[in-house]
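ARCHIVE CARD
CATEGORY: sequence design from structure
SOURCE FIELD: tokenized fold
FIELD CONTENT:
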């Protein structure tokens, strides 16, 4: 059995970050590639929705949604990489209880992939972290697709709750930036914005007190961070 992990929404200024760890038989991973499963960024939403059924038929996955409130609170103490590491570990541990995979590949957010892999090691499992893993390994591509679709669903829930169409939630989206500027006094809407992002401060004029990141001892382990 093999598993792969990826995220969606890591860098957005509005909305959650979604982690997905997907596992399947190795022969199924080869079939995923033949059936057109690839990095979610290379697929349209219609293609992702079509492929989702194939992904679900060929394997199993765990999702961890890291909501904005949680990110805002945690970033007073932790880096975004540390938050992502913990979410990946939680999802990986849950999936391992369902299927005993012996290889796990992550799309690494760390500039040093080997460092990211070392922090997420699991007994009896070969843990690998790579840049662009979502484009290289179908099992990671599958996780990428599920994470992306789940984030899109969560973003739509926010739009429905607030009655505001803020676009994609990414800083590169003009609609998102315009919405931040227009809604800077809307407390309900700002609950879904990442207050530690420079984009948030720039377009709302709200500056969050400079955060301090703790230095963690390796012996403390991810499970003790929160």
């Amino acid at each position: 059995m093999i598993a792969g992990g990826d995220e969606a929404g890591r860098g957005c200024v509005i909305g959650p970050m979604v982690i997905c760890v997907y596992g399947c038989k190795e022969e199924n991973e080869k079939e995923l590639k033949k059936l057109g499963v690839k990095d979610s960024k290379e697929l349209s939403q219609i293609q992702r929705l079509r492929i989702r059924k194939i992904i679900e038929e060929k394997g199993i996955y765990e999702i961890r949604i890291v909501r904005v409130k949680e990110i805002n609170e945690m970033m007073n103490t932790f880096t975004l990489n540390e938050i992502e590491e913990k979410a990946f570990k939680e999802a990986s541990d849950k999936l391992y209880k369902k299927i005993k995979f012996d290889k796990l590949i992550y799309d690494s957010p760390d500039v040093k992939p080997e460092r990211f892999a070392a922090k997420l090691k699991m007994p009896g499992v070969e843990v690998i972290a790579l840049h662009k893993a979502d484009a290289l390994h179908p099992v990671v591509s599958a996780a990428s697709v599920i994470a992306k679709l789940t984030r899109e669903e969560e973003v739509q829930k926010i739009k429905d709750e607030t009655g505001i169409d803020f676009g994609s939630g990414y800083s590169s989206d003009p609609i998102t930036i315009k919405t931040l500027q227009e809604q800077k006094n809307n407390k309900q809407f700002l609950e879904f914005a990442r207050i530690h992002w420079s984009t948030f401060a720039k377009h709302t004029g709200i500056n969050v007190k400079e955060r301090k990141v703790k230095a963690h001892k390796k012996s403390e382990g991810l499970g003790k961070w929160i």
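CARD ANNOTATION: The domain at 2-156 is CATH 3.30.420.10 (Nucleotidyltransferase; domain 5). The chain has two domains: 2-156, 161-204.
SHELF: design records, drawer C
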